[in-house]
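Quick question, first post here. What does this chain look like in 3D?
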Amino acid sequence: MTRQVYPVYDIAGLDSRSDILVGSFAPYIGQHRKLHVPHRHSFYHMVYFTKGAGHHTIDFDRFEVRPFQLYAMVPGQVHRWAFEGEVEGYVLNFSPSFFHQFLLRPDYIEEFTFFQGQAQQSVLAVPEQMRTRIADIFEEMIALVPSISMLHLDKLRVLALRLFLDLASLDEPAKPSPLSNNIVLLRNFRKLVGKHYSELRLPKDYAALLYITPNYLNAICSELLGQSAGEVIRNRVILEAKRLLVNPRLAIAAVADELNFKDNSNFTKFFKKYTGTTPEAFRRTID
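> Answer (accepted):
Ran it through. Tokens below.
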């Protein structure tokens, strides 16, 4: 039996009348029943659970679904849900351009830790004292949806930003304030890796783009991440390889070509060296 290509959802295909979709989660999963299949979005995706169980996999990291958890995902991440019993909560989807004309800095959203594409940072436990406020913000947004206008869209943007700022306060104690120069450099390094991982594989390439030495870049990564700059680059290549391998109709050789490896053999050796398994074996582990 031929397996289906995993879907890539666009916000326009989810019955949205604009660049934003907000609503209750139970009706949302009732309308979109293929959430158990690995898929990607071309938009930002946030889900806040008030009831439910099961698990959620984001970029091959598995998380247990619990009430009062919030999941935040960025465009391009591969994820899937596996629910047990009824689930309730809220969903918020918005396009990458939703805030562009509203904010002076188009990349402002990327400043939030939970919107930086790191799976382990995208799952938040909402404390009891904040739960009512988070639910109220979602309810305010839902009330604006039936009559979308420019004014209501701006109100939605303000409410969404209030939600993000409230959530950002959850890890405030762990963040140095103000941001140190090294943290800014690390953030910029990760952004560059996200854009150029397929063609730039050496720390010296990124150090040149950041106007620092390779040794300094390695020192920053070691201090803040506990890994070398080379590991950051390799991990991003491996992540994208796994994302591509989820597609059963994409040949291994095509994955190798997409990631700019010389040939299939070179890619297979790289993948096995850093994951302990071959691309073919990894693909067989995907349901």
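The mean pLDDT is 87.
The longest strand covers residues 44-51.
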